[in-house]
Amino acid sequence: MPDAGLLVPPDRVQRWVENFQGRHGTTALTVLDGGLEGSASDGSTFRMDLPFATRYAGLPDASAFAVAARTAPPADWGVLLVRKGGFAVARLSGTRTSASKVGQRHVQGRTKAGGQSQQRFARRRDNQARQAFEAAADHAVRLFGDLAGPVVTGGDASALEAVLEDPRLRALQVLQRRLPVPDPRRAVLEQAVADACSVGVAVHNSDGPSWPGRSSADGADGR
Fold first, then answer.
1. Contacts of 194 (CB under 8 A, 6+ apart)
2. pTM, whole model, 2 decimals?
3. Is 25 left (phi over 0), alpha (psi -120 to 50) or beta?
4. Which H or E run includes 196?
5. pLDDT band at 111 (very low <50, low <70, confident <90, very high)
6. Are the beta carbons of 102 and 187 closer than 8 angstroms?
7. Which residues contact 91 (CB under 8 A, 6 or more apart)?
8. Is 127 left (phi over 0), alpha (psi -120 to 50) or beta?
9. Cα separation of 21 and 158, whole Å?
10. Using an 8 Å Cβ cutoff, are 200 and 7 in contact?
11. Could you tell me if 202 and 46 are in contact, meaning their C-beta atoms sit under 8 angstroms apart?
12. What stretch of H or E contains 68?
């Protein structure tokens, strides 16, 4: 089966590995290229990577990896979520949010009208989107000011690009991983913070013989 990408909170890492072994059989753990890898007796494999592009150099042990994951959030970092329907910005210390702002901006949807009406509508829509992105950039500048650590982003790639093109934000250390999020609201921001602090897991389920009691998929909940 093809690889599956998951986000697993640090507190569930050890249980997730135990459940993987229960589904796929005896699993050998190794540390390779800064991540924790597992290879099961049925041919299934997984790889775990710490959040914030942190490289793991500890023991090949799930509990040790979980400890490293819990201590991975930097002392000063940020979250920037942008979609055409709104934005969310947060500055954090470890897992604690020190300042945040969530905002919505109305951007009209597409129209089926043609001709000059369509052109006027497109210009108005572009102006609304530009104003929304400018508002997001202004709040990012205000909150991130002297930010020392990385920024985790989420939302539309084009919207984020438009915001991060602001000269005042070009010095930010933006991490490569972009979170998929709906229109930013307070709850969406809180979930994005949790996801940013979670372990990334890539799973490859073997098509070989099933281990007794094995389920068809490895979920992120670790139950």
1. 9
2. 0.83
3. left
4. helix 186-196
5. very low
6. no
7. 76, 77, 78, 97, 98, 99, 100, 143, 144, 147
8. alpha
9. 40
10. yes
11. yes
12. helix 62-70
217 class by beta-carbon count within 10 Å (0-12 exposed, 13-18 middle, 19+ buried) = exposed
Do the beta carbons of residue 150 and residue 173 sit within 8 Å? Answer: yes
Sort 94 into a burial class: Cβ within 10 Å, 0-12 / 13-18 / 19+: middle
The two three-digit tokens of residue 10, written as one number: 């640090």
CB within 8 Å of 105: residues ≥ 6 apart: 84, 85, 86, 87, 128, 131, 132, 135
Residue type, 90: A
Which parts of 72-144 fold into alpha helices (H)?
115-144
* 90: Cα separation from own chain's centroid: 14
The two three-digit tokens of residue 109, written as one number: 């949807």
Is the separation of the CB atoms in 86 and 183 below 8 Å? yes
What confidence category does residue 152 fall into, taking pLDDT thresholds of 50, 70 and 90? Answer: very high
